[in-house]
TrEMBL record:
Keywords: Membrane, Receptor, Transmembrane, Transmembrane helix, Transport. The keyword Nucleus does not apply. The chain crosses the membrane at residues 12-34, 46-68, 74-98, 110-130, 142-165, 186-209, 229-247, 254-274, 294-313, 320-339, 359-381, 393-417, 437-455, 467-486, 506-529. This is Integral membrane protein GPR155 (G-protein coupled receptor PGR22). The keyword Ligase does not apply.
Length: 686
């Protein structure tokens, strides 16, 4: 009784909680050696889920779906978002992920990654979450069914075709001579795929019942005893699929591709689905519920089917896919939870604005802390930061700009200084505080684009050109004045509760966001092409060896015994902040377009989209500080300087009495000699 009267947010939280517990149960069983997947303990469960339970669940869903009540604009919006994400993910994976391998193997991996980016866990997560959110008020489960049907008839066949082509090319060492054999393989795989077969059988059954004199088939249940048979075989699917996902996580670890795949599925797919939903459904009040659903559905994380495909066609990527599934749940949970709070079923624009103000204030406060920690690192390192390198100098100035930007943003927040927003409403961009806010925001954005250009076009070895670095940093401040004086800064209208109107300033904001996304995308494509060319030249050399060799070849002054932080450009740090910058630019383009073209208000799923943009925009110091301390070259140099400032800590007697210091040194100086120099094996670590 208490569960029935619980709010949609509470029901959603409970559904996400039990989902995570089911996955963690599988993970713990493997880590405790209760189950040994390598010895075949889960082969039977994998066969049952992939070949029996899941196809029967598809059959039951298709056969009992009330397709006539579906607004196909919603299905089209979600499908178009998935098509865009699937195409982009496939291209990125084919070009950039381990490009030294054969063409067939790259096609297989790209197909697995692309399928991951669109394979929403409709049955294990989608139906429980949607039922928990909407309950009996609105029947939105039919749209889960519609999207599952499109996935079965469109995305699964495309993936199977890619697997057939990749497998044939891999078997022929990349030679596409056997076109007939590839065609026969594709047809055989499509005809024998249990998901496609059961989908077709379900549609045929629905057509037969619809044409019969008894009318259409019930939208809820098949006739007995068929319904009892289906219920018996599909009842274990939810728990078994999630448990199998957990057992696939051998050693979950943070990896660039795992994080990238999760962002493509949970964030990019959700934003693009909402954008297509706005185009196809319009902005009338009657379609608001469906537009909100497109974003919510796009944020549903991926389930276990990509793990099954990876294990069958590309075993080397299975662990990466399983890790991505776990990360997807960790990211999608908060996004869906925030979206549930923002939906129009409970809450209005004023309440959503207040929540946005609170979230942005919290992010700014934590960013000030992270910016202060970054400034402290600069003070401790001093010249060891190597300010003569233009990239490191620009990175240092970027961090300081973010610190001041967070302080100014907090001063604009009406929770602390209501008069700032009142003055902004009267004078718009003419207030000194707003102009400063806009100037710092655009300066940081331009610096990120220049850092990305250095990553793509610059050398791997640090150059001692302090004048160039100062000139570049100064140019960023100067060029940022133009958009600051003409365009409205991002997040300012929403945080001050200003209803944006279509004017010149807002149009320039949209154009400036589009220009940033275009430049960042062009640089990213250029970087991928150069990486591909380097891989072709290097053939089978590993990425670390290649980076180390390039560093030695590009500059004769490279000294393997010197501090790597001073010798090399921090490419790993720059890569992390630029990837998040591309994602931030995409969210700003879509949100600015929604406001400019459709005058969307801060409510529903759009409120959650604004919250995510605010976190990405104002949480940049988090990313910068985290990326720095994930860079082993930086941490080694930092601890070396810290050891020199506190020599007592370096003594063995003191180290043995300080377990925290011992842990730090063991983690980051494992490969260093007594002077804190990194061994030769780590020269390629960027």
């Amino acid at each position: 009784m208490e569960a029935e009267t619980a709010s949609p947010t509470v029901r959603l939280f409970n559904a996400l909680l039990v989902t995570m517990l089911a996955i963690l149960t599988g993970l713990f069983c493997v880590r405790l050696r209760l189950i040994r997947p390598d010895e075949g303990d889960l082969k039977g469960m994998g066969f049952f889920i992939g070949s029996i339970a899941f196809p029967l669940l598809i059959f039951n869903t298709v056969a009992t779906a009330n397709i006539g009540a579906i607004d196909f604009g919603v299905i089209a919006a979600c499908s178009l978002g998935k098509i865009a994400v699937m195409s982009l993910t496939w291209l990125l994976a084919f070009v950039a992920y381990l490009p030294h391998r054969s063409v067939g193997q790259r096609i297989l991996t790209a197909a697995v990654f692309a399928f991951f980016a669109v394979a929403s866990d409709d049955f294990a997560i989608g139906f429980p979450v949607i039922d928990a959110l909407y309950g009996d008020e609105v029947d939105m489960s039919i749209y889960i069914t519609g999207n599952a049907l499109v996935g079965s008839f469109l995305f699964v066949p495309i993936t199977i075709i890619a697997f057939a082509i990749g497998g044939a090319l891999r078997g022929n060492n990349g030679e596409a001579s056997g076109c007939r054999a590839i065609g026969r393989t594709i047809i055989y795989d499509l005809v024998t795929n249990p998901v496609l077969v059961m989908t077709c059988v379900g549609l045929i059954l629905k057509i037969i019942f619809a044409a019969s004199s008894t009318g259409s088939l019930s939208a809820k249940k098949l006739p007995s005893p068929f319904s009892n048979f289906i219920d018996l075989f599909t009842a274990p699917f939810g728990m078994s699929a999630l448990f199998l996902t957990g057992t696939s996580l051998r050693s979950p670890r943070v990896a660039v591709w795992a994080v990238g795949l999760v962002l493509m599925k949970v964030v990019v797919c959700a934003y693009l689905s909402y954008a297509f939903g706005t185009l196809l459904l319009g902005t009338s009040g009657s379609t608001k519920l469906f537009r909100d659903f497109t974003f919510f559905y796009g944020a549903i994380p991926t389930g276990s089917p990509p793990i099954v495909f990876a294990a069958q066609f590309d075993p080397d990527s299975a662990e990466l896919i399983a890790t991505s599934v776990l990360f997807g749940l960790m990211l999608a949970g908060p996004i869906m939870f925030v979206t549930a709070n923002s939906l129009g079923l409970h809450g209005d624009a004023a309440e959503a604005t207040k929540i946005l103000q609170q979230v942005q204030a919290s992010v700014d406060a934590s960013s000030i802390f992270c910016g202060g920690a970054f400034f402290l690192c600069l003070l401790l390192l001093r010249w060891a930061w190597h300010f003569k390198c233009p990239a490191k100098l620009l990175l240092a100035v970027y961090g300081m700009v973010l610190l001041v930007y967070a302080v100014v943003s907090l001063m604009l927040n009406p929770l602390f200084y209501p008069q700032s927003c009142e003055l902004f409403k009267r004078m718009e961009l003419r207030t000194p505080l707003v102009l400063t806010f806009s100037w710092l925001q655009n300066t940081a954005s331009i610096m990120l684009l220049l850092l990305q250009s250095m990553l793509v076009c610059g050398p791997a070895v640090s150059k001692e050109r302090p004048v160039l670095g100062v000139s570049i940093a100064g140019a960023c401040f100067v060029f940022a004045l133009l958009p600051s004086l003409l365009a409205t800064p991002n997040t300012i209208n929403e945080i001050c509760g200003v209803s944006a109107v279509r004017n010149v300033s807002l149009s320039l904001t949209f154009a400036w966001s589009c220009l940033q996304l275009l430049i960042a995308s062009v640089l990213a494509i250029n970087g991928l092409c150069k990486a591909r060319q380097r891989a072709n030249r290097a053939e089978w050399r590993s990425e670390r060896s290649e980076s180390s060799e390039e560093a030695r070849e590009s500059d004769s002054s490279y000294d393997g015994s010197a501090d790597l932080w001073q010798q090399l450009v921090p490419q790993g740090t720059i890569l992390a902040i630029t990837i998040l910058n591309i994602l931030k630019c995409l969210t700003q383009v879509i949100n600015a377009g929604q406001v400019f073209f459709y005058a969307n208000k801060n409510q529903g799923s759009f409120a959650a989209m604004l919250l995510l943009e605010s976190v990405l925009e104002h949480g940049q110091p988090w990313v910068l500080l985290t990326a720095l301390f994930f860079d082993q070259n930086f941490t080694s140099s930092f601890l070396k300087v810290l050891s020199g400032m506190c020599p007592r800590l370096c003594k063995a007697s003191q180290v043995s009495k300080n377990p925290l210091w011992c842990l730090i040194r063991h983690s980051y100086l494992e490969n260093a000699d007594i002077d804190g120099r990194v061994s030769e094996t780590d020269h390629g670590e960027l």
